[in-house]
Amino acid sequence: MGLLFSSSPKVYKPAPEVDLGPGSDELYISPNVKAPRVAGLPVKLFAWVLETPVVGAIVLYFLKKDNLVNKLVSDAEIPEPPLFTAAHAWRDIPEQNAVSQAKPGLSPAERVQRALGCIPDLPGPSPSSSSSLSGFRRWTVRDFARAYGSGEVTPVMVARRFVAAVEECSGPGLNMAMFISYNPEDILRQAEESTRRYQQGAPLSAMDGVLVAVKDEIDCQPYQTTGGTRWLGKARPCVSDAACVAQLRACGAVLAGKTNMHELGAGTSGINPHHGSTRNPYDTGRVSGGSSGGSAAAVCAGLCPVALGADGGGSVRMPAALCGVVGFKPTVGRLSNSGLLPLNWTVGMPGILAATVEDALVAYAAMVDQSRPSHSQPKLNLPLLPSTRSMPNIRLARSAKWFEDSSEDIRRCCDKALQTLRAQYGWETVEVTVPEVEEMRLAHYVTMGSECSASVAKYVEKLDRCEIGWDVRIALSAYGSFSSRAYLNAQRIRSRQMYFHEKIFETADAIVTPMTGVTVYPLQDDALSTGELDYINAAALARYSIAGNFLGLPAITVTAGYDKGGLPVGIQFIGRPWSEATLLHLAYAMQEACSKDCRKPMVHYDLLKREE
Fold first, then answer.
1. Quick check: pTM over 0.85?
2. CA-based angle 280:173:216, to the nearest 5?
3. How many angstroms separate the CA atoms of 17 and 436, rounded?
């Protein structure tokens, strides 16, 4: 406890001297967040104060001192050299022969076909339109492909239902605010082209005609990319599809519009004063999470089986967990960043939100970046999901103090999930210590904030500040206050954490954590026009997400159960670099173990219903 009350900066011992065993005496620091939630006029006043010369700098100094940024990062003494990127050299990961290796040079459509061969046979008719809470199953990519192939339903029919559903849920009755922009004419044009291909017996792939929504941080024609702002789309025109979008389009996917997000990705709630605040389909009085909240909510509500997000600090995985869907962030470099807003160069990348693990696999196969020369191209292993039960030697690392720093309901669900995996699959949980977790969170915050500030500076300096949301004005003031020493020390902490995680992965296949420290919280009216400052919930939501981004590791979240109020609880698996196949196996096992308890959201649309 001495560190918390001492005014002296932390002096770190060399990383190899840190005990990573279960009995380690390393101090676990829970986020030292004391500020009460504020919204409305207090947010405006705080933004004005921070933007006032001299006074703002003084206030920011004491804020950083209070939340330990100075002690643990900026002024700390750290022996390791800085590590400025989280790129990983290719390593051949042992996957227990439960994979199919895709050859280099395959087209996106050919990779989708390979992925389909890795998925178990489809079950019978879906109960997704049933009012029962037991056994609810979401429509998948293969459900759509099978329906289109049979001719019972066409992509045009589904596209029309989608447009009607978006109009309904965006209206004053529900005000879900899932989309920033969608173009019915363009969506129907794509669907008509897909319908003709099916009629001719020549669909491009199983994703032909399947709706895919795109976070408004990723370029997708014919839309501008706003980043959740009112101004960025004009300042930075979108001239072509992002690489990942182009690959999905090559598979015949119907790009269904741009989903809502927290402005500039600078928050975890999904509250956006410009485009509306995305509501959670499980409880429309609660937030969706952020910053990819629109994509998570769209998948949750049945509007599409796959959506794209961007993940710089859990921004795919957090809202996925809060909305009860799959959130998947591969190893840095697996997916191309081309066409992604460069808000966070060293921590951000595209990610996948999906109705099921199978859908995440199909989309991942389509989107994998195969543009490198073959000699430097990481191998693409696709998991043979029917073989998941034949993987008896999985070891899951659990760091007790970190794992248990969550709400009682989340601990209960995640502990039960691990017991289920042990009982059904024989997988072992091994106790370890992941040290310096709060130090890593703060170092990531310094890194992400510094990079975001530098990225948007050329635009913001020309803007009238009233164009920016009040909560984001506060965030940008904080981001711009970090010193070069703070940034360098953050990269030294990155180096330490890379060492710690590499050592843990010598004895475990994955690290398991809850995905968030709390379940989804209420959306309050006073935040709708200004945003809110809720650092307690923000820190709890981001508690388990940082390693995936700061260290470039693959990570996936899948629903493990529900809290006492019926809200989803996500569990997370963090893997070695390039171990996406193993993570998809783990998530699939968890999904299957919980399938009978899957619950239908309050807001849900059945786009595959047969005409009466």
1. yes
2. 50
3. 13
- Kindly report, residue by residue over 517-548, the tens digit of the pLDDT: 999 999 999 999 999 989 899 999 999 999 99
C-alpha dihedral (232, 50, 315, 431), degrees to nearest 10:
160
Question: Which is nearest to 193 in space by CA: 159, 243, 146, 143?
Answer: 159
> What contacts 85, CB < 8 A, 6 or more positions away?
346, 552
288 close to 294: Cβ distance less than 8 angstroms: yes
> CA torsion 260→112→368→321, rounded to 10°?
40
Contact status, residue 254 vs residue 191, Cβ threshold 8 Å: yes
Q: Does residue 284 sit in helix, strand or coil? A: strand
Cα(289)–Cα(321) distance, integer angstroms: 9
Which single residue is written with the structure tokens 């379940």?
519
Task: Give catalytic residues, as residue numbers.
Answer: 215, 291, 315
∠ CA 67-73-77, nearest 5°, is: 135
259 close to 289: Cβ distance less than 8 angstroms: no
What residues pair up with 212 in beta bridges, in sequence order? 255, 306
Strand-pair partners of 63: none
Write out the two tokens for 290: 């952020």
E strands, 384-509, in order: 395-399, 428-432
SS3 category, 132: coil
